[in-house]
Amino acid sequence: MAFLTIVIALVIGIIVYKYFLGDPNNFEGFDPKAKYTAKEIAEILEKGHPKDGNLAGTIYKGGFIVPILIAMNLIVIFFSIERFVTLSRAKGRGSIDKFVEKIRTMLEKNEVHQAVEVCDRQRGSVANVVRAGLEKYEHIGSDSGMDKEQKVEALKKELEEATSLELPMLSKNLGVLSTSASVSTLIGLIGTVLGMIKAFQAMSQGAPDSTQLATGISEALVNTAFGIIASTLAIILYNFFSTKIDNMTYSMDEASFSIVQDFSSKTTK
Q: Dihedral of CA 228/45/52/13: which sign?
């Protein structure tokens, strides 16, 4: 799904660049009432200046790197939406802190079965881990074939396994965001360098080609802007989601510790 999403983002970037940003109406010298050949339209797009205040035409002048950078921005947006939805579901219903506190209170009252029902209502990753621990709590509590130390270790192992099953789902696709933060800047830098090369080539001639100079500067600035935007969004969102995951992981550990401590204190053999 991640690969397919990246491909879709790239296709959308190319379509936006070619048909929206590359609309001849965005450029000077184009008459909508006149009939042009494909070659003439290509020349208008290549040599024509964007109309005053026309941002789409200016962005088009950024060159072939632009659709790639549009795709990078879309990738950041797509995967951020996916992470937001996934982590919202993983959070479950209501406050995680209140849920953990409620579980702790119910364990103190020896209401293990009722605590399992609370987990079913809460749902989410933290509730899944707690539920697995509580089910093991009930199962080994009456097992006479194990001593206290074995029971505690079995409970710890169950909680660790349940946590390890939840963590990959929480951190899935975060690597795409972290990679996008670095790659977007580098791709934007490539576009900047190519644009500056065109600008210096125009200036190196006896009579500077103003069209080529303007195109080179536009390409450099547009690619720089798109690269920085994608990188900034990716960094901010990556840190945001990482913080949410850390908070949920902490809640899992806190709840697991409470379950183990309660079981250990109430088990004599």
A: negative
